[in-house]
Amino acid sequence: YERRKLKAKAQEYCGRNATRLSQELGFGTQGIVLKTEHNTALKVYELEKGYQREKAVYKRLHERNIFSVNRMSIPRIVHWEDDLLAFEMSIVHVPCILDFGGAYVDIAPDHFNRNEEWFTEKREEFGKHWGDAEKVIREIEFKADIILVDVNPGNIKFPP
After folding, report:
1. Per residue in 131-149, is it b (16+ CB within 10 Å) or e — as a string?
2. Per residue in 25-59, pLDDT tens?
């Protein structure tokens, strides 16, 4: 994707919603995340499929009144603009769960398989926090029927 185009969409969002951008917080394979002057995060997607999937996750969490899991904060959606593929959310601090771009509501994708190789890889990535990370994954699935596919220490953040 072209960051310039996504930043232009972010500026359009800000113009519509009486806010301004203050800094870039991050970027990934699907888009960018920027901080606003209202101390919120604005995520702008390149493709509609990923945007709709992540928005569905946040809507499910809201419907089920899930704003934290195992004492880990989850961002709350403040507002979205479907035509811009952008949504604004609260900023959370560690410990927290971020980035539901690789999560699915109700049904896991066909390509996803939590086999022994997957568990070994995740144990190595999370180290001493793997047990707690695994509890978070299971609780979100149990309480919200949300399958976390993109599981890594950048998305499930523990204090050092």
Report:
1. ebbbebbeebeeebebbbe
2. 998 889 999 999 999 999 999 999 999 999 999 99
Q: Give how many domains the chain has, as a whole number.
A: 1
Q: Which residues pair with 77 in a beta bridge?
A: 89
DSSP-assigned beta bridge partners for residue 115 = none
Amino acid found at 5:
K
Residue numbers of the domain that contains 47: 3-157
Beta bridge partners of 42: 34, 88
Band (pLDDT 50/70/90 cuts) for residue 65 is very high
Q: What is the CATH number of the domain that holds 137?
A: 3.30.200.20
Do residues 64 and 105 touch, judged by C-beta distance below 8 A? no
Q: CB of 78 within 8 A of CB of 60?
A: no
